[in-house]
Amino acid sequence: MRVIDRLLDLLYPPRCPFCRKLVNRDEGEVCAACRKSLPYVPEAEYMRGVKNTELCVAPLYYEGSVRQSLLRYKFSGITAYGHIYADFIAKSIDETQISCDIITWVPLSRKRLRKRGYDQAEIIAAALGRKLGIPCVRLLAKTKDNPPQSRTGNARARKKNAAGVYACCDREAAENKTVLMVDDIVTTGSTLAECAGVLRKAGCKAAYAAAAAMHRE
Q1: Pair (25, 43) in one structural domain
Q2: Domain shared by 26 and 118, yes or no
Q3: ∠ at Cα 155 (150, 159), nearest 5°?
Q4: Within 10 Å of residue 112's Cβ, how many Cβ atoms?
Q5: pTM of the model
Q6: What angle is formed at CA 123 by the lines to CA 22 and CA 39, rounded to 5 degrees?
Q7: Residue 103 carries which DSSP code?
Q8: Same domain, 125 and 176
Q9: Are both 4 and 55 inside the same structural domain?
Q10: Counting Cβ atoms within 10 Å, is residue 154 exposed (0-12), middle (13-18) or buried (19+)?
Q11: How many domains, the chain?
Q12: The domain spanning residue 137 has which CATH number?
């Protein structure tokens, strides 16, 4: 271990992003106990019915320590978690042999971005792009500041809430490309379906989706 790493560990002891226990740098960023006990999503449970997409993958269920981790990531500014989620997504991508030309993300509205200071989906998407060696390109813009999907009711209400609030901001980059869209959490897939529809209308060849976690049905 480098001297600088030892000093950093003394100043900022690394903690598992899920259970928050101290971890040894040699065992990685996720503790061994969590790696064994996390609520992994079986490949058979990946979402194949999201409209306008070929497949939606999510490595973890949004519950327990995964839920708490993502809440800290989104609302407490712990952006370092982003690349850890990207590592989990990359394994799901490898399992399903998804092949894409570019990666993009489901964006926040300008208002919410100013308030939060960062776009959590963009951070994951950029880290995933670096991990897979695939360009990460901004293809979507959120044109309206609609209520968060987490505060919306059933699938029909979520679909209505997501309708017409996204636009393609780089048609040239999207045209004739297979795109992988990234978000942090997926519930019904309404937002991803809306974004995929926008990209398909802009000329993209096919759309896949990925999220760090999904709600268990």
Answers
A1: no
A2: no
A3: 85
A4: 13
A5: 0.90
A6: 50
A7: E
A8: yes
A9: no
A10: exposed
A11: 2
A12: 3.40.50.2020
Yes or no: say if 159 and 187 are a contact pair by the CB < 8 Å rule.
Answer: no
In order along its 217 residues, the chain shows pLDDT tens digits of 455 545 545 556 789 999 999 998 777 899 999 999 999 999 999 998 899 999 999 999 999 999 999 999 999 999 999 999 999 999 999 999 999 999 999 999 999 999 999 999 999 999 999 999 999 999 999 988 766 665 566 566 666 666 678 999 999 999 999 999 999 999 989 999 999 999 999 999 999 999 999 998 7
Helix (H, G, I), strand (E, B) or coil at 189: coil
The tokens of 198 are what? 């926008």
Structural domain boundaries, residue 210: 38-214
Which amino acid belongs to residue 211?
A: A
- Based on the fold, state whether residues 32 and 72 are members of the same structural domain: no
Q: Are residues 28 and 48 in the same domain?
A: no
Find where tokens 């990359």 sit.
Answer: 90
Q: Are residues 33 and 129 part of one domain?
A: no
Same domain, 7 and 52: no
